[in-house]
Design a protein that fits this description.
The protein is α/β, with parallel strands linked by helices. 38% of the residues lie in helices and 15% in strands. It has two domains: 11-233, Type I PLP-dependent aspartate aminotransferase-like (Major domain) (Aspartate Aminotransferase, domain 2, 3-Layer(aba) Sandwich); 239-356, Aspartate Aminotransferase, domain 1, CATH 3.90.1150.10.
């Protein structure tokens, strides 16, 4: 089976973990501090604060911006559910805005109409490795005095107009094993705001700045030194990982562009956390590829507003997100794919298209 994702863990990561284990300092030690410094430098911001995962990063970032009950946060309905869950965890209300059919990201032209007196932040998602249109979002945030909290959990190293995502507002990253870089589990929050950074550091550490003195209610959202040690080595490799993903995506673009019934993702600025196509007969295509030992995934089969966990939103309609959820299929694009595997995936999709006589997507 060609896996949909595969973390690339080398001897460097293993040696780094053993070094931490031998040191006896396993949590919130010098490796975490070093990882934070290096990640801040990579993104181009003043502060990076390591957390236990991407969801806790989003939650802490929202809380640090004083998002609370009665507030509204504008975001995308087409994302992993953690994006909206983090808003609800603050007691606030997610306000969904439909997506752009070509980017899969929030449609910036629809955001202004969703802004009310209760709106306190915009939370764009850089989905599948493609940055949201941050110029328009920044302009709206400035016009209405709104915070920007970026869900960059799938876009490590992606750039928009020469700036890395996570540097436009308060950025949130995930280091889950399928991401462009991993720490096993882990997250990171990036910001240029000293006050926000200070609040986050307290929030993730039981409201404490000085050990055993607690200034506010907080959480245990800390990262371990074991995870940070892995992250430091993965961060060194991230540019090469992303380059390989781009090369794999370019191969797909060249060899899939003339197959009927398939629409390809945008290439520009994309670091391809996922290579997500739109395809007629999506469910049949998924089954066909898996019969050929090619793993695929559907991100996401139902938008957030249609989930059972969001019953108060089920009556709403976001037609583009709903349409895209019926068409998307993610192919393996990870750095460990061989040329033979890439060829086989393309050949198999060509075979499916020929057998199904797929028509062009509208």
């Amino acid at each position: 089976m060609i896996p949909i994702a595969k973390p690339s863990i080398g001897t460097e990561e293993k040696s780094a973990v053993l070094e931490v284990l031998d040191s006896g300092m396993l949590a919130q030690g010098k490796k975490v501090a070093e990882f934070e410094q290096e990640f801040a430098k990579f993104i181009g911001v003043q502060h990076a604060i390591a957390t236990s995962n991407g969801t806790t990063a989003l939650h802490a970032a929202l809380l640090a911006h004083n998002i609370k009950e009665g507030d509204e946060v504008i975001t995308s309905p087409f994302s992993f559910v953690a994006t909206a869950n983090a808003i609800r965890m603050c007691g606030a209300t997610p306000v969904f805005v439909d997506i752009n059919e070509n980017t899969f990201n929030i449609n910036p032209n629809l955001i202004e109409a969703a802004i009310t007196a209760k709106t306190k932040a915009i939370l764009p998602v850089h989905l599948f490795g493609l940055p949201a249109e941050m110029d328009t979002i920044q302009a709206l945030a400035q016009k209405y005095n709104l915070a920007i909290i970026e869900d960059a959990c799938q876009a490590h190293g992606a750039e928009f107009q020469g700036k890395k995502v996570g540097s436009f507002g308060t950025g949130c990253f995930s280091f889950y094993p399928t991401k462009n870089m991993t720490t096993g589990e882990g997250g990171m929050i990036t910001t240029n705001d000293d006050t926000i950074a200070e609040r986050i550091r307290k929030l993730i550490n039981h409201g404490s700045e000085k050990r055993y003195y607690h200034d506010t209610l907080g959480f245990n959202y800390r990262m371990t030194d074991i995870a940070a040690a892995i992250g430091l080595e993965q961060l060194k490799k991230l540019p090469s990982f992303n380059q390989r993903r781009k090369e794999n995506a370019a191969y797909f673009h060249t060899n899939l562009k003339n197959i009927s019934g398939i629409a390809l993702p945008l290439e520009k600025n994309n670091v391809f956390h996922q290579y997500t196509i739109r395809i007629n007969g999506r469910d049949a295509a998924k089954k066909f590829l898996e019969q050929k030992d090619i793993a695929t995934a559907i991100f996401y089969p139902a938008p957030i507003h249609q989930q059972k966990a969001y019953p108060e939103y089920n009556h709403l309609r976001f037609p583009v997100a709903e349409k895209i959820s019926r068409e998307v299929l993610s192919l393996p694009v990870h750095p460990l794919l061989s040329r033979e595997e890439l060829e086989f995936i393309c050949q198999t999709l060509q075979e499916f298209s020929s057998k199904s006589s797929a028509s062009s997507l509208p």
